[in-house]
Design goal:
Helix content of chain A: 25-40%
Strand content of chain A: 15-25%
Helix content of chain B: 40-55%
Shape of chain B: globular
Number of domains of chain A: 2
Oligomer: heterodimer
Structural class of chain B: alpha/beta
Number of strands of chain A: 10
CATH topology of the largest domain in chain A: Rossmann fold
Radius of gyration of chain B: 23 Å
Order of helices and strands of chain A: HEEHEEEHEHEHEHEHEH
Distance between the termini of chain B: 12 Å
CATH class of the largest domain in chain A: Alpha Beta
Largest sheet of chain B: 9 strands, parallel
CATH architecture of the largest domain in chain A: 3-Layer(aba) Sandwich
Strand order of the largest sheet of chain B: 7-6-5-4-3-2-10-9-8
Structural class of chain A: alpha/beta
Number of strands of chain B: 11
């Protein structure tokens, strides 16, 4: 991108000097190049293009290059903009959740459950609320599994109760109690109007109400659009995102029951 | 555009066997459907008789009236006889007043006999007949408008979705979509609606991930699309969903309000919404009979099998479902041009030859059902959030659609699984469709899969797996001695979901018909035959 050619040496030098400072990479270290597209509610004319460029600059793209503008009907214009981002990211200020438990094979997971519980670990799973997308929960629970890993049904020491789609929260709580569930997995794919957040908080609140303190099953929410680190806000113990495999969930469950066993002997 | 040439060289004996097995699997279930009724069938009948509206808590009057009759005389005789008997006895001047009185317990119902029964039945037939005539008039109006404005110039018809939750937001979006090139507008329903055992009333603005299907919403949207059809000089069709617990009622409302297409799958509710199988099949048959009479094109939901199972391994379940859907539809009086049988582009793109397999599967559907419009649905399962890759996948999806002469093309959005589509996503998606159709739809002339090549072989394999599965279904049994198809559904044959005939939502709304069961709607629908001409649409 020609727009980046203006100060490549300087940018590269400063990035190297600062080590933990990161900028986007277009085709040269430190060029900061990003690409974005958006629509403005304006008819396509010179003024609209100027507005698009001004927006891009306010978003920190400088210089910004308007590479495409197209009218969509009489009232809207679609833009594609390339530009060098003036923002810097300091990696020292970036905090993420790293996995704090070891990945276990199915055999090791079974063994640990047997040793810790001396019975099967009971997992109840469901898509709650109005969500009918069972792809996620099925990938984790069904024996068919996901990404070459067998689902939790495959684990000898795990009893899986998959309630399927559109399960009401009270129904889920009742079933979890009836099955004496150690863990409850809910899957949420639909995110319109934050449905996944509302449903999950409603679920965790219901469990806290139904169980004595400290005896709530391990609550796990899974879905592609949960924010990392939002467990506390949602009232769940763990969130799993896109690409999670059954083995990761099983390993986490084993880790968590071991922890809880340790807490209350 | 649809050329039913024998491109795949399927063995006609195998195709015949597949159809006869589907017929065999469906027959016992049809028998069950003919010998039962449900609360929703009875409510639909009252809606045809003109009972509309709801109380101040938005409980529809049809629900009040059916509940009252059911409590006093049961459902098994049909509700219209006791209802019209009460009217003839002067309990109320009209259905609405009767329902209001019934809601407060101020009217008693009985099962009349002798001349009184005959009189009640005659009055009921007259009342319900009015609704059926409204449906006939709507069909005639549609035909007239299509003649005036014309059908879309090219196939496939472009199918776009609106889903704001607010009918007054949906309307301008739908009109904009039509101006951008949509031939069919589908208004997605509020996600919870399939499990509501009543149809909401009035214009609604508070849907959840979609807009409630109500009679008033149907009317508003159809009127808005009539305006835009006139402006564009092409009849823009409207689609909604006849599924869930109120399938028969929604079908009746759709027929009266001139909707043009309805999502209506024979097993979707059972498998994916856990609705009781008997309830579903009974409701199903009634709703399809109404659709047949209303001239509505149904869209079936085979795409769902592929989103929950592997699209290669489960390819034959799509074929089986299409054959069953076809059989149940034909039995209910629907004609080939009304069968928007579904299939989808859902094979994992990482698999070698995934495109060749998609092409083989799509050609198989095209050739098995040469006179059905077929609804071709875009990738969803392997749309990852990488919108650029998704755009490419949608292009390949469109290419299969162009090469196999699909009737209805649901436009794929690159933001699938990310956000509800932006205005620009829809524009880009339509550009994608237009480019591919413009560039490649002529390929149907040039492209013939070589004899015994990969595509022919794959198509034959899927068909033979479908025949094997149908074979297993018709010989399935369970301890309760259910119909084989019900036994097969109970043991998880479809979509790996086990749905026993005694489980699921809505079972308590099912009754076996008594010998004196009378329902003027089912009587008229059973006797109805489609008008002589009306082919090749």
């Amino acid at each position: 991108m020609s727009a980046a050619k203006q100060q490549p040496e300087q940018a590269a030098a400063s990035a190297a000097a600062q080590g933990n400072i990161i900028r986007p990479y277009g085709d040269t270290t430190g060029d900061g190049m990003v690409q974005m597209s958006f629509t403005l509610p304006l008819p396509h004319d010179k003024k609209a293009e100027g507005a698009a460029l001004q927006l891009a600059r306010k978003m920190g793209l400088d210089p910004a290059l308007l590479v495409h503008a197209k009218a969509m009907g009489p009232d809207f214009t679609f833009f594609v903009v390339y530009g060098s981002s003036t923002h810097l990211v300091n990696l020292d200020d970036v905090h993420v959740v790293e996995r704090e438990y070891p990945l276990l094979s199915a055999k090791d997971a079974n063994l640990t459950i047997k040793k810790q519980l001396r019975r099967k670990l009971v997992v109840v799973g469901a898509c709650i609320g109005t969500d009918a997308h069972t792809v996620g929960i099925d990938a984790i629970l069904n024996i068919k599994g996901f990404a070459g890993e067998k689902g939790l049904e495959y684990y000898r020491e795990i009893k899986v109760v998959n309630l399927g789609a559109q399960v009401l929260v009270p129904e889920l709580v009742a079933r979890a109690r009836a099955e004496k569930a150690d863990a409850v997995l809910v899957s949420q794919v639909v995110t319109q109007k934050d449905a996944h957040i509302h449903n999950t908080t409603q679920m965790s609140a219901a469990f806290r109400e139904a169980y004595p303190a400290g005896q709530v099953p391990i609550l796990i929410a899974g879905g592609p659009r949960f924010e990392d680190g939002s467990e506390k806000a949602l009232g769940v113990d763990r969130i799993f995102g896109r690409g999670t495999t059954p083995g990761e969930v099983a390993s986490y469950l084993v880790h968590e029951i071991s922890l809880r066993k340790g807490k209350k002997p | 555009m649809t050329r039913p040439n024998a491109m795949l060289e399927l063995d006609p004996a195998v195709v015949r066997r597949a159809r006869s097995l589907a017929r065999k699997a469906a027959a016992p279930v049809v028998k069950i459907a003919r010998s039962h009724t449900t609360v929703s069938v009875e409510r639909a009948t009252l809606r045809l008789a003109g009972l509309a509206g709801a109380d101040h808590e938005r409980v529809p009057w049809v629900n009040h009236l059916v509940t009252a009759v059911r409590d006093e005389v049961g459902l098994e005789h049909g509700v219209t006889t006791p209802v019209y008997d009460a009217l003839l006895r002067g309990e109320a001047p009209d259905l609405t007043t009767l329902a209001q009185k019934a809601a407060s317990g101020n009217v008693s119902f009985r099962l009349p006999s002798g001349r009184e029964a005959t009189a009640a039945r005659r009055a009921a037939a007259k009342g319900v007949g009015a609704g059926l005539r409204t449906i006939d008039r709507s069909r005639a109006t549609r035909d007239r408008l299509i003649t005036r404005h014309g059908d879309p110039k090219t196939k496939p018809w472009i199918y776009l979705i609106v889903a704001t939750g607010d009918i007054y937001e949906d309307i301008p979006q739908a009109q904009a979509a039509a101006r951008e090139g949509a031939d069919i507008i589908a208004v997605i329903r509020s996600t919870g609606q399939s499990l509501l055992d009543y149809v909401p009333e009035g214009a609604t603005r508070e849907g959840f991930a979609g807009t409630y299907a109500t009679q008033e919403n149907f009317r508003l949207m159809r009127a808005a699309l009539d305006d835009v059809s006139k402006e564009l000089g092409r009849y823009v069709r409207l689609t909604n969903y006849a599924s869930g617990l109120c399938m028969p009622e929604i079908a009746a409302l759709a027929g009266m309000e001139r909707l043009d297409m309805m999502l209506n799958d024979s097993m979707y509710g059972i498998l994916f919404r856990d609705i009781n199988p008997i309830r579903t099949f009974v409701d199903q048959r009634f709703s399809r009979q109404v659709h047949a009479r209303a001239g509505i094109i149904i869209n079936t939901g085979e795409d769902n099998y592929l989103t929950t199972a592997d699209a290669v391994e489960a390819a034959h379940t799509v074929t089986v479902s299409q054959l069953l859907n076809e059989r149940f539809a034909k039995e209910a009086g629907l004609e080939d041009w009304q069968l928007g049988l579904g299939h989808a582009f859902e094979i994992n793109p990482e698999i070698p030859d995934s495109f060749r397999m998609e092409l083989a599967h799509a050609m198989l559907a095209r050739q098995l059902f040469p006179d059905a419009p077929l609804k071709w649905m875009p990738p969803t399962k392997h749309m990852t959030g990488d919108v650029f890759r998704g755009y490419l996948l949608d292009g390949f999806f469109n290419l299969v659609g162009a090469m196999t002469g699909q009737g209805i093309l649901l436009v794929g959005m690159m933001t699938e699984a990310v956000v509800t589509p932006f205005l620009s996503d829809r524009d880009l998606a339509l550009q994608n469709v237009r480019y591919v159709m413009n560039a490649a739809s002529g390929l149907t002339e040039d492209f013939h899969p070589p004899r015994d090549g990969y595509i022919q072989t794959r198509a034959r394999q899927v068909l033979s797996e479908a025949v094997d599965l149908l074979d297993r279904i018709v010989s399935d049994t369970d301890a309760a001695g259910d119909a084989p198809l019900l036994a097969a559904i109970a043991d998880g044959t479809f979509g790996l979901m086990k749905r026993p005939a005694t489980g699921g939502k809505g079972l308590d709304g099912v009754s076996e018909r008594a010998d004196d069961y009378d329902n003027p709607a089912t009587t008229a629908l059973d006797a109805w035959t489609p008008p002589a001409k009306e082919t090749g649409r």
